[in-house]
Structure formats: C-alpha cells, structure tokens
Amino acid sequence: MSSQSKYKASLQAAIGLTDEQRQTAEQNFLEVLEHVLGGASAVRGAYVEWLAVRSLRAENPGSSRSSEELQAIARWEQAADHATRAVFRQMKIAAQNAFFELHVWNSRTH
Q: What is the CB neighbour count within 10 angstroms for residue 86?
C-alpha cells in the first residue's frame, strides 16, 4: 500500500488463516482494487463516494436515487466484489462468511 493512499484493508471472519496469509490476502485485495479502479486515489475516492451515498440513503430512505448515486454504489460494490472473489480464488480461501473491510482515514488528521 502506498503511504499516500491513506487506507488499509482488513479481512474479517476468515477462520483458519495464519497472520501471514491474512496480510497477504489484504494486500492482494488492495492491489486488485487499485488495478480495477485505476490507482490508490481512485480507490479512496470510490469508497468515500460509496460511503457518502450510503449515508445519504440511510438518512433519506424514501427519496429517489440519482444516476450519479447509482453509479457510485455500483462502481464500488462491483470493484470490491471482483477483488474479493479474485483474492479468494487465487489464495484458495473457502470462507463463506469472510469479507474485506476498507479503513479510510482523513488525510488532514493523519
């Protein structure tokens, strides 16, 4: 992960992996995301947009979604799903409930 990316991944609920396997999976997840979305800043941007739209939807569940909101949701969710499946397939992780979380922090405070 680039020191400028200001995010990290953590693999959750993957039982039976060593710390090394977990760290490798997390790094591979970030690499696939960066490849799919076009770089570290694009990963951070897509995630922050997705998070903002999801928060807006939670606050206003009855309002209609704009095409930009739908695109932001689809862009992140498709990239994250692709990266998760690619890493699980590559590392032969058979974890039914496992998932990756992305942790993003504010560049002004870190």
A: 17
In tens, the pLDDT along 49-108 reads: 999 999 988 888 778 888 999 999 999 999 999 999 999 999 887 767 889 999 998 755
Q: How far apart are CA 72 and CA 89, in angstroms?
A: 26
So what's the pLDDT on residue 4? Answer: 53
Give the SS3 label for residue 33: helix
Q: How far is CA 6 from CA 16, 56, 70, 109, in A?
A: 28, 23, 25, 10
The pLDDT confidence band at residue 5, using thresholds 50, 70 and 90, is low
As a whole number of angstroms, the longest Cα–Cα distance in the chain is: 45
Residue 21 identity (one-letter amino acid) = Q
Task: Report CA 44 to chain centroid distance, whole Å.
Answer: 9
Helix (H/G/I), strand (E/B), else coil: 43: helix
